[in-house]
Amino acid sequence: EDLSTNRYNWLGDITRDDAPEGEINGPTNTEIFDDNYLARLNARYSLGNGHCLSLTVAPTFIVRSGENLLLRGTDFVDILKEKRELLNFINGIEYKWKPIDSELEFLAFGKSYTTDLLANVPNFDNFIIRRDVSENYFGYGGGIRWEFTKNWVVKSSYEYATRLPSADEFFGDG
Asked: Which of 5, 57, 120, 142 is placed for a possible disulfide with 82 were both Cys, Cβ 3.0 to 4.6 Å?
């Protein structure tokens, strides 16, 4: 338990001994567990004459559980024991074309970013309410690749993408 009322400077000297106990919002002693499940599925289909279509599906599912050990045996609601789940889905489709007898290769792609959040959270009266949030974003991009020798390649690409928040960003770190 973090019950010290002392505050220290960089040299280790006590600068105050009347501060509130523990962390800023009181002492904490928590356990957090994340169960992470992820997959990546790829499929490619040749359309002939240097044309190719690819599909990628990449789901990530996170279940978070935990316990505030300082709340054991009390009547307080332990938010860490409440249900918290996060599903991120990133799907992409890509078209690639390499003209026959050419050193050039062209590609274009689109992506779908989906995040589904399910969490039980306390409101101001310490009652548990269910939060169910689903958001969808889109991205796209393209590129060109030039293989001017067997050992040298120049590539240029552009992507408009979305970064999905992590479990810590949604649920906090404790």
From this structure: 120
